[in-house]
TrEMBL record:
PANTHER family: FOLATE SYNTHESIS PROTEINS, FOLIC ACID SYNTHESIS PROTEIN FOL1. The lineage of its organism: Eukaryota, Fungi, Dikarya, Basidiomycota, Agaricomycotina. This is Dihydropteroate synthase. GO terms for cellular component: mitochondrial envelope. CDD domains: HPPK (cd00483). Gene3D superfamilies: 3.30.1130.10, 7,8-Dihydro-6-hydroxymethylpterin-pyrophosphokinase HPPK, Dihydropteroate synthase-like. In the C-terminal section; belongs to the DHPS family. Pathway: Cofactor biosynthesis; tetrahydrofolate biosynthesis; 2-amino-4-hydroxy-6-hydroxymethyl-7,8-dihydropteridine diphosphate from 7,8-dihydroneopterin triphosphate: step 4/4; Cofactor biosynthesis; tetrahydrofolate biosynthesis; 7,8-dihydrofolate from 2-amino-4-hydroxy-6-hydroxymethyl-7,8-dihydropteridine diphosphate and 4-aminobenzoate: step 1/2. It catalyses: 6-hydroxymethyl-7,8-dihydropterin + ATP = (7,8-dihydropterin-6-yl)methyl diphosphate + AMP + H(+); (7,8-dihydropterin-6-yl)methyl diphosphate + 4-aminobenzoate = 7,8-dihydropteroate + diphosphate.
């Protein structure tokens, strides 16, 4: 044959319900508009046999095709709004799915070409529509081309070089065609024709160009700006604009200019990467919450799915990286109060997905995690909302419904319209971007939170920070949710903490020290056998310890180096034995941290059942001081430590205690570099700056540890004089104050602001020095229990979330009294 044969159904009239409305938006979101559309269906098909035999059996019945399409699209009854279509693309998807997947003719249909026209188009436009080409592949189908068109958009503008044309607006008629390489069925990723036409009508009407050429180019730019809201960063459509002046020429129907433009034609308006295939990236803020099932598991699963968008986005170049996370908060439900409490948080992401496609990804993640649609603001396994997207202001709701706060289902509004009234959104945002400005009201996030807190009475259930502890070892039936996502642990328990030091609504907890080493400064050779270690663990549980810290490597000055294998052999069997205890469920489920700076030891300990990592070197290894080091070799080693331990923490989702230290515990006690704050506060400033730098490197950036998993330790007894240790102890709450730090030339917010803190002063040598002063006495470490009690009481008064001690029963008594004094529940 010399060409392709086609069977065509042309301009098939069908009445459909469109939720996007007709000339005007629907009066109510739940009442879509019934209106006519025209469908033209073209099917490439060899009709030679039908022609030779003059027999329809050898062809495809266009009557059957027309009937099938009408039946699939038309309302089922006059009493019900079904089926309802969100867009012309959704209608196209329904037709393609019907013919290429369900039709009796599907084996003969390899490709279809489709045109859908909406004649009752949005105001100021004669008609809109789409043309697309779809092909069948195995049992599915795909769209390889789509063209959007808007016919005869009419605007009145000042345009022309003649003096008379500068005095009065005249009609300009635009015809727009947008060629797109394809679209993704069922993603909600569709063009909002009404928004595009409204944008052009409003903005073009304000122009006063001399030439039609300039007006056409400007119209193309405005159209591309609108397209950017729903296209991925790697998609580059071309837009064709025909701009006609019907009243320009006496002997012609119109003068007209036609232009074809892409993003690359406006380099100053759109970020481009030249000839690179790397898509441009934007920053967005995502808020999340869960109040059904294992809330912490749900949130962790959602975030891991977010970072592998390829599982549900058919885009090989899709990028979503989490760059920062907030703390997690437990909050009472808002609006609908008869439901479980929520766990809330937020994250900052970098992505090449445009806002509408990102919204589609979030909805699919919600479905995967298990959200079941319910009442508005009702319970859900996970809820994901785009709060901010760069500095964009977007509202895809119909113009007349934009003042309705609840009308968000299926729509995208950025900034989120209710963020300014929600403490559970603003607190997480303040953790990450306190000084960022709201793109509409011009106020900082910190200011917005202050306004919310000052305008509402103190709630019966104030928000609390939470630190989740996962259950390890994993059960035998634990499976990875996806092949490239490690198994996610269930939650064992969590610590609820006050949002600020000034809110004493949570007790200080007790961490019991179990040194399975022969050379610990305080209790070496005491608990270094399996039986003595288990006896100690039982005693810790009975005495009221909240967590057991198991260590196999002494960090005292002059301690003998221990191999990785020896350290593992000291800690992992103890942890495994505790998890296998059969006669004591309280002991078997006790929280366990592993006191190590080595990723190999941490991995083995967690596999054995540890729930937390306690690292005295904050992921940078024992020899890196200062950090970052001026020595290239030391810095390389430090980067290896931080990379491996971050990766491990992300994989296992365990909390980490990060301590301030400066290499060997007895060295590097000079803090004169921080004397700009005064000699009495230099050590605290040094802790903020030095530990803060490490914490920022650990929490922020791609692959960062979740902020809610970090507890900080100011490092009592490590690289500090007696006075330095006392300075930190008496004012340890200020280590994590939300204040500015650094010299005048480099003032910045304290990177440790808001982190829960742990204090470990038990039996330390500086206590011995104090006890020996004046008419005092010389003491051995195990004789410093009373001195330790004073530090524990001080830590409680300063709002520490936990204290690390040797003498469990005695310090538990101190905690009970001190908590009653300063941290009443």
């Amino acid at each position: 044959m010399s060409g392709t044969d086609y069977i065509r159904v042309k301009d098939l009239l069908v009445n459909v319900y469109l939720s996007s409305g007709a000339r005007w938006p629907p009066k109510e979101p739940t009442k879509p508009t019934l209106q006519p559309i025209f469908v033209t269906l073209s099917i490439p098909y060899d009709i030679k046999n039908a022609a030779d035999n003059d027999d329809l059996e050898n062809s495809i019945s266009y009557s059957a095709l027309a009937s099938a399409v009408r039946a699939a699209l038309s309302p089922t009854s006059s009493a019900e709004f079904t089926p309802v279509f969100d867009s012309l693309e959704c209608i196209g998807c329904r037709i393609c799915d019907l013919l290429l997947s369900q039709s009796p003719y599907r084996s003969a249909l390899h490709q279809i070409q489709l045109k859908i026209s909406q004649t009752k188009a949005p105001l100021h436009c004669r008609g809109i529509g789409i043309e697309s080409s779809a092909a069948r592949s195995a049992d599915s189908w795909y769209v390889d081309r789509i063209r959007y068109f808007c016919e005869d958009i009419e605007c009145h503008v000042i345009i022309g070089v003649n003096p008379a044309e500068r005095l009065e607006k005249q009609l300009v008629r635009f015809n727009i065609s947008i060629d797109h390489p394809g679209y993704l069925p069922g993603t909600g990723n569709f063009l909002d024709f009404r928004s595009l036409i409204r944008r052009l009508y409003e903005n073009v009407g304000k122009t006063d160009f001399l030439t039609l050429e300039a007006l056409a180019s400007y119209t193309a730019l405005e159209s591309l700006k609108e397209l950017r809201l729903f296209l991925r960063g790697d998609q580059a459509p071309s837009i064709n604009i025909k701009a006609a002046k019907p009243y320009a020429l006496v002997f012609a129907s119109a003068s007209e200019v036609e232009v074809c433009r892409t993003f690359s034609d406006y380099p100053s308006e759109f970020k481009t990467e030249g000839t690179s295939d790397t898509p441009s990236l934007s920053t967005a803020v995502i808020a999340f919450g869960s109040n059904l099932g294992d809330r912490f598991y749900n949130i962790e699963l959602a975030l891991r799915l977010l970072e592998v968008p390829g599982y549900s986005v058919q885009n090989a170049h899709a990028v979503v990286d989490i760059l920062d996370t907030s703390f997690l908060y437990e909050s009472a439900p808002m609006y609908v109060t008869d439901q479980p409490t929520f766990i809330n948080g937020a994250c900052i992401i970098q992505t090449n997905l445009p806002p509408l496609e990102l919204l589609g990804l979030l909805k699919r993640i919600e479905a995967t995690v298990g959200r079941v649609p319910s009442i508005r603001n009702g319970p859900r396994a996970v809820d994901l909302d785009i709060i901010l997207y760069s500095d964009l202001v977007i509202d895809t709701r119909p113009q007349g419904q934009r003042q309705i706060g609840e009308n968000l289902e299926g729509r995208l509004v950025i900034p989120h319209p209710r963020m300014c009234e929600r403490e559970f959104v603003l607190r997480p945002l303040k953790d990450m971007i306190p000084d960022d400005i709201h793109p509409i009201n011009g106020k900082s996030i910190a200011t917005l939170l202050d306004e919310v807190l000052s305008s509402f009475p103190i709630p019966n259930f104030p928000m609390k920070k939470v630190v989740p502890f996962p259950r390890y070892p994993l059960s035998s039936d634990s499976k990875a949710p996806l092949t490239n996502i490690p198994p996610i642990p269930s939650n064992l328990t969590y610590w609820a903490l006050p949002c600020s030091y000034a809110s004493p609504s949570s007790k200080t907890r007790l961490m019991a020290i179990l040194n399975s080493t022969p050379d610990s400064f305080s209790d070496g050779l005491v608990h270094n056998t399996l039986s003595t270690a288990l006896d100690y663990a039982r005693h810790a549980t009975q005495s009221g310890a909240d967590i057991l810290d198991v260590g196999g490597y002494s960090t005292r000055p002059g301690a003998v180096s221990v191999s990785v294998e020896d350290e593992i052999s000291r800690v992992s069997p103890v942890i495994a034995a505790i998890r296998k205890v059969e006669d004591n469920e309280l002991l078997r489920d006790m929280l366990i941290s592993v006191d190590t700076f080595r990723w190999e030891v941490a991995r083995s300990a967690i596999d054995s059942g540890a729930n937390c990592i306690n690292d005295v070197y904050s992921f940078t290894g024992p020899s890196c001081y200062p950090y970052p080091s001026n020595d290239a070799g030391e810095q390389t080693i430090a980067r290896q430590y931080i990379t491996e331990l971050k990766k491990l923490t992300r994989e296992f989702a365990v909390p980490v205690v990060l301590m301030h230290s400066r290499g060997e515990a007895g060295a590097n006690k000079d803090y004169s570099d921080y004397s700009y704050v005064g000699s009495s506060k230099a050590v605290i400033e040094g802790v903020r700056v030095e530990l803060g730098l490490k914490v920022d490197d650990i929490v922020k950036g791609k692959g960062g540890v979740r902020r809610w998993l970090v507890i900080v330790d100011p490092g009592i007894g490590f690289s500090k004089t007696v006075e330095g240790n006392l300075e930190v102890l008496r004012d340890s709450s200020s280590v994590t104050d939300d204040v500015y730090i650094g010299p005048e030339s480099n003032r910045r917010r304290n990177p440790l602001a808001g982190f829960p803190s742990l204090i470990g002063a038990s039996r330390k040598s500086f206590l011995g020095t104090i006890l020996a002063g004046g008419n005092g006495r010389t003491t051995q470490p195990n004789e410093r229990g009373w001195a330790t009690a004073a530090t524990v009481a001080c830590a409680v008064q300063q709002g520490a979330c936990a204290v690390r001690v040797h003498d469990i029963a005695e310090m538990a008594d101190v905690l009970r009294v001190a908590n009653s004094l300063w941290r009443p529940l």
